[in-house]
Write a structure and sequence with these properties.
heterodimer, A: alpha/beta, Rossmann fold, Ubiquitin-like (UB roll), de novo design (two linked rop proteins), 3 domains, 5-stranded mixed sheet, 4-stranded parallel sheet, 16 helices, 9 strands, 45% helix, B: 86 residues, alpha+beta, Alpha-Beta Plaits, two-stranded antiparallel ribbon, 5 strands, binds iron/sulfur cluster
Chain lengths: 433, 86
């Protein structure tokens, strides 16, 4: 198959079957990165492609790779020094005995744990195109010279992943770890924790994982869609990648559309596509939905009359949303926004990993105030109290769960402002008086 | 006495929220820097969510409070505090 056929938005699922034979027939062989300058060349290609992480945070992919590579060589260069002069006392020396060069080699983890209940893209990709993900994983391993390579996946995709690994000799060393279905289990430090201690909860960190992650080794955690996109860029180049999408949102991305639509589905869309086009492709139940939740439960609502907005960082920023993990949840005009938001806030509060005080206490407090608003309690102080709590929890947890929940709650207050006013007088646009 | 030629790097007080139990000893030792929230957990007096959320887990320590901050780190019963720098 030639590259020319890969010009539409159908890129990731073109093999049409999860087998290695189908994958190889469509995409060809995995490019080699064994030449001395190949890792730098691939990092440069990724930089020019503009590929950003597809797990939610949207961090530039090339930077993470460059940072892990730099940290691994720094450690390799300085290990002699560390063993001799800096660590002079005996306990430090005892420690350093266990830190031979292999102990400092980078760890690469493909993250396929769709923590978002409304996202199915990672699972679907792993089940239908596992070899693109494995290609991306092996390329990252080669670039940062990692000794340990793993995939962290939901139970539903584990069998497909194991089958795919068994099909190819170059991937037999890839370990598979099953992620629990908790909201925060896919957070990067939770993933590192899962590998090191077997518990998928986030942990405190003062330095980035790329410097010190699993067992203090430089650790690269990359979402599985990101890995699949990386595998395509390694083959077909940055220019090809950018031939679809916009200058600031190049390439394609996977979105999971759900809610009040006739055909909830996974779509591969060009970056910067309007929400309207995406929603229309899924047979929405009404002409103008009340709102669309974009990004995920840590995302924000875009009101139904603003669906001309593009699926891009700039266009979504005013709504407190971002493309994130590609969740698009359509709220039909017949539903009360505050009721739906309250249910989501309840869920988010229940998903606190119960480690950090402000998160354990603040999230249920926010959910309860939002619940009172949804139940049309006539207390005019409720919106102010919700905003105060959202400010209070932000920045005060070991992961971004409080921040994301606060963002969602504030977005709900903004998007459903008229409902808030009606509810405070005991009325509701949907449920009447 | 000599003046140091360069300003020292900003000292930060890092809070490990997974360890902190909110009994508030640190807020008694560092009242200038830390208030208590309604559940007892330390709340930076500087830095707001609107400003930089990161400043609420890594709180800048003014030079005059470095000694008190070191005491808080040493005395925190849960070893939830660390001195770091930027
Ligand atoms: S902030 Fe919340 S979810 Fe994150 S680690 Fe702390 S308790 Fe867990
Ligand atoms: S002294 Fe330690 S455990 Fe107690 S509130 Fe302060 S940081 Fe938390």
């Amino acid at each position: 198959m030639t590259v020319a056929e890969l010009t539409g938005t159908a890129r990731l699922f073109r093999a049409g079957s999860p087998t290695f034979a189908a994958h190889h027939a469509v995409y060809g062989s995995l490019p080699s990165v064994t030449a001395p300058d190949a890792p730098d060349a691939l990092i440069d290609e990724l930089r020019r492609s503009g590929l950003e992480g597809r797990g939610g945070a949207g961090f530039p992919v090339w930077r993470k790779l460059a940072s892990v590579l730099a940290n691994s060589s720094v450690l390799a260069d300085s290990s002699g020094l560390a063993n001799s002069s800096v660590l002079a006392n005996s306990s430090a020396l005892a420690n350093s005995a266990g830190r031979g060069s292999s102990q400092r080699q980078p760890v690469v983890i493909g993250n396929g744990a769709d923590g978002e209940p409304l996202s199915h893209k990672d699972e679907t990709l792993l089940r239908q195109a596992p070899h693109l993900v494995l290609d991306g994983l092996l390329l990252c391993q080669a670039v940062v010279r990692a000794s340990d390579v793993s995939l962290y996946v939901g139970a539903a995709s584990a069998a497909a992943v194991r089958l795919a690994i068994a099909e190819r000799p170059d991937a037999l060393h890839v370990r598979v770890l099953i992620a629990p279905e908790d909201f925060v289990s896919g957070e990067a430090t939770a993933v590192a924790n899962a590998f090191e201690h077997g518990v998928s909860v986030p942990r405190d960190h003062i330095v980035h994982l790329s410097q010190s992650g699993v067992k203090k080794r430089p650790t690269l955690v990359q979402n599985v869609e990101t890995l699949a996109q990386l595998a395509l860029i390694a083959r077909f180049g940055a220019e090809w990648f950018r031939s679809v999408g916009t200058a600031s949102e190049p390439g394609t991305r996977l979105v999971t559309v759900s809610g009040d639509v006739g055909t909830p589905q996974l779509l591969e869309v060009a970056g910067g596509t309007s929400l309207r086009r995406i929603v229309d492709a899924c047979a929405p139940l009404d002409e103008m939905p009340r709102a669309v939740l974009v990004g995920g439960y840590h995302g924000g609502w875009v009101p139904g009359d603003r669906l001309d907005s593009a699926l891009s960082r700039e266009a979504l920023a005013p709504f407190g949303a971002a493309p994130g993990a590609g969740v698009i949840f359509v709220l039909g005009s017949g539903r009360c926004g505050l009721e739906s938001a309250g249910a989501i806030a309840d869920y988010l509060a229940s998903q606190s990993a119960r480690q950090c005080g402000p998160c354990i206490n603040g999230l249920p407090a926010m959910a309860s105030v939002l619940g009172s608003l949804a139940a049309r309690s006539r207390d005019p102080r409720l919106p102010g109290e919700l905003a105060r709590l959202a400010d209070l929890v932000t920045g005060r947890g070991s992961c971004s769960h409080p921040d994301g929940t606060a963002r969602f709650v504030l977005s709900s207050l903004r998007a459903f402002e008229t409902d808030v006013r009606a509810h405070l007088t005991g009325r509701c646009e949907v449920h009447g008086a | 006495m000599t003046n140091s030629p360069q300003p020292e790097p900003a000292a930060l007080l890092h809070i490990d929220w997974t360890r902190c139990d909110g009994r508030g000893l640190c807020t008694e030792l560092l009242p200038e820097l830390l208030a208590r929230d309604e559940w007892g957990y330390p709340l930076a007096r500087t830095g707001s969510a609107a400003g930089s959320a990161a400043e609420r887990s890594d709180i800048a320590i003014p030079p005059a409070l470095r000694g008190a901050a070191a005491d808080a780190v040493a005395l925190c019963p849960r070893q939830a505090l660390k001195l770091t720098s930027r």
